[in-house]
Each structure stands twice: as structure tokens, then as C-alpha cells.
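WARN retry 2 of 3 for item q-0093 after timeout on previous attempt; input resubmitted unchanged.
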Amino acid sequence: MVPGAGNERFTVDVRAVDGTVVLALAGELDHDTAQPLRDALDAAVTPGGRLLVDVSGLGFCDSTGLNVLLHGRIAIQEAGGTLELAGLSGPVARMFRITGADGVFPVYADVAQALERQPG
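OK item q-0093 returned
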């Protein structure tokens, strides 16, 4: 996955920070824009890996986006790793709260707080 992949409505920036893969999402995540996230999640699944998805830049996320994240969570758990979220706010946080998905993922206020947590 190339950092900054996506289109004019949605982007995924991929970086590594102290052994954690951070995916920073920005824009609108929906059926038409979800493929770059699928690709990034597939590429980021490593045995025992830690994946942090920063959703603070999302203005919108529909059920397709939520399902992509849920499938990514399952894939990384099967590889012995974790998928965590940072920066849930606004309408995206509301959708996660209404669906109960905020209870499925470890959720942090922001990337800095998530990175302070020691793996294990």
C-alpha cells in the first residue's frame, strides 16, 4: 500500500510508529471509496502485529466502512494481532455507538494516547 492512497473523497495514509502500523483515514468512507482501506488493512496484517486506525479525519462512515474495519479486525486477530481505533468523534462516533462497534474495538481519544499504551 502506498502512503496517501485513495481518491478525492477518501484517503489512507500508512506509517509505522515504534512497531505499530498507523492508518490515518480522511474524508468519506463508503461503498464507493472503501477499496483503499481494504487494501491497506490486507497489507498491514502481520503475525502478532498492532494496527491503529486513526479515524479522526473521517467526516462520514457508512455500514460498508464499518464492515471493512470489522473484517480487518477479524483478519488481524486470526494472525494474533490487534486492530485499535483512535479519534472517534462526531457522526462517525455516533454510528459506532449506535451499532455497538465502539465496544468491539479498543478505542483511544487520539493517536498519541494509543501509542502511549505498551503492547501486550
